[in-house]
Specification:
The protein has 4 helices and 5 strands; from the N terminus they run αααβββαββ. A hairpin with a 6-residue loop joins β2 and β3. The longest helix is centred in the middle third of the chain and has 54 residues.
């Protein structure tokens, strides 16, 4: 039994959604499956009967419209995936900053001096041209506003926080550390 184009498109969209879900967890094993699904869909689309009766021009317009709908749906899914990843990334940064707050409070209230703490390397943004990378404390960093909120909290507690650049001295590794001092 052959599917209509509408049924075929609905089936394909569901299949792509499933593949994208699994590929976000296992990217190395599902990237080929997405390409295979597209090939299968295009083959089936070529074999299917057009839903639109009439002249060849009308049939071609319907096919082009269907392909455009698929591209839009796929683009919307890609955008939604990117947005979800961006939200998760920002939530992770916010959680780490909250963890730093708790650690600072705990250390100071326990009578300890806050020890410099290495910051996650994922917080380093890479720019174009000379100077290549910058930390979250730099104004060009996309998450700089979160850092400013963190600094505002520290100032309200009479503290100064800084993101200090460190390196191994051989040009192999570099990182940033969180440093806390009284105002």
């Amino acid at each position: 039994m052959r599917m209509t184009r509408a049924e075929l498109t609905a089936f394909y969209n569901k299949e792509v959604e499933t593949i994208r879900y699994f590929s976000s967890h296992y990217p190395e094993s599902y990237s080929d499956r997405l390409a295979n699904a597209r090939d299968w869909y295009n083959e089936q689309l070529a074999l299917s009967e057009p839903d639109v009766p009439g002249k060849l021009g009308d049939k071609l317009k319907a096919t082009i419209a269907l392909m455009d709908e698929l591209k839009i749906a796929e683009s919307a899914r890609d955008t939604a995936e990117k947005l979800a990843k961006e939200i998760a990334r920002k939530n992770a940064i916010q959680a780490k900053l909250e963890e730093y707050k708790a650690l600072i409070i705990s250390n100071i209230e326990s009578g300890l001096v806050f020890k410099k703490t290495e910051m996650p390397s994922s917080w380093t943004a890479y720019g174009n041209g000379v100077g290549g990378s910058y930390s979250i404390s730099h104004a060009k960093h996309p998450d700089h506003s979160m850092w400013l909120e963190f600094c505002g909290w520290a100032r309200s507690e009479g503290l100064s926080v800084s993101c200090d650049y460190q390196h191994d001295g051989f040009g192999v590794q570099s990182w940033y550390v969180l440093n806390v001092r009284p105002l």
